[in-house]
Amino acid sequence: MSDYNQPLSGNEMPRFAGTATMFRLPVALDPSSVDVGIVGVPLDIGTSNRVGARYGPRQIRAESVLVRPYGMATGAAPFDSFNVADLGDVALNTYNLEKSVGIIERHFDALLQQNLKTISLGGDHTVTLPILRAYAKKYGPLAVMHVDAHADMNEEMFGEKVTHGTIFRRAIEENLIDPKKMIQVGLRATGYAAEDFDWAKSKGVQVVPAEECWYHSLEPLMEDYRSNLGSEHPVYLSFDIDGLDPSCAPGTGTPEPGGLTTTQGIELIRGCSGLNLVGADLVEVSPPYDPSGNTALLAANLVFEMLCALPGCKKR
Ligand code: MN
Ligand code: MN
Description:
Elements: E1 36-41, H1 56-63, H2 78-81, E2 84-89, H3 97-111, E3 117-122, H4 128-139, E4 142-147, H5 167-173, E5 177-187, H6 198-202, E6 206-209, H7 219-229, E7 234-240, H8 262-270, E8 276-283, H9 294-309
Parallel strand pairs: 1-2, 1-3, 3-8, 4-5, 4-7, 5-6, 7-8
Bound molecules: manganese (II) ion (MN) (2 copies).
One manganese (II) ion binds near residues 148, 150, 164, 240 and 284.
């Protein structure tokens, strides 16, 4: 029997009852004994179209009650491997994006003083920039595995430098990311300009449009990424749920047709196993556009897969 936090079993308390923390784990007020902290970042004032991602963390937690502790295909046993806890939400300023971005950075600065990894629940994709700012202070320029329909590499939006569509350009400019160690998967649909994906490519980012993913497994792609990168360099995984097709993930702010399948999303995360994954996020779930709950349920399962992909996760 493990000393680590265990999810409350669905055979002890019905899944629809009890407190809906992430994976039915305890909430930790003190992160010092936590190996992996789940952090909600309920921000949506960085969005350019539909809002609602502020409700993402709460809804992903609510749907996560169905996730059980063992991965049946991989044998992964994350809750026997790490002490995982729900660290609650960041207390944002709902009126001011710039201030909220500062609040998020300071929140993660404090968390990363501890010897822990974080998996964050968005919130819109803006949240990733301050998280990367905090991570880069600890690890230096990170490798980034980015799943998204969009490059999020715009120079600005409405004249603003920090929005959910500009974060990775800022992160590269600020040297938070090593662009030669970054891969973007699932990019597609329509752009503001025909050259929208080119700036990242000019910096050395590996851009994999959705069309290159259609109809086949993404295991070979991840095998290549792993062998190029090796198992040492710190990697951050940022998963925008709109990377997946709206048929599997309709509850999001800027949906684009022709996206990745659920299976491919899982392959991308499982393909991070063997990398030095130090943190991750799952962003852009918008519950008001998710009446079935399927998008949040999928997100909860993808977060489970992220836990399973962390270095040191035991396999049964
Ligand atoms: Mn995004
Ligand atoms: Mn997106």
